[in-house]
Model the fold of this input.
Amino acid sequence: MHKGYLRTATFLGAFSVALGAFGAHGLKQLVDDNSLKIFETAVRYQFYHVFALALVGILYKDFSAKLLNYAGIFFIIGILLFSGSLYVLTYKTATNFRGLNWVGPITPIGGLFFIAGWICLLLGIKK
Done:
C-alpha cells in the first residue's frame, strides 16, 4: 500500500466535499449558472479522481509499482490542472478579474493527464 497516495486522496476528498458545499450554498450568489456548472464539473472530476488515486494506493503493493506510481502522479497533476484551472476560471467570473486568460487552455492538458493516469493504471494492473 502506498500511504502517500492514500493520504493525498483523503485530503483531496475532504477538500472536494468542502468545495462542493461551497458551490451548492455560497457560490450561487456570486456567479451565473454557466460558471456554477463549470465549478461543479471541477468538483466532480476532482472527486472521481480522488477515488482513482485511492485505488492506486491500495493496488500499489500487488502490481507494477512503476506504472501505478505514474498513474498516481498523473491523477494528481490532472486534478491540479483540470479542476484547478476550472476553479480559477470560476474565481475570475466571481471577482470580475480581467487577467489570467491563459488558464482556459490548461484544462484539456489536465484532461490528458487524467487519461494518461487511467492508461498507466490499466497497464500497471495488467502485468
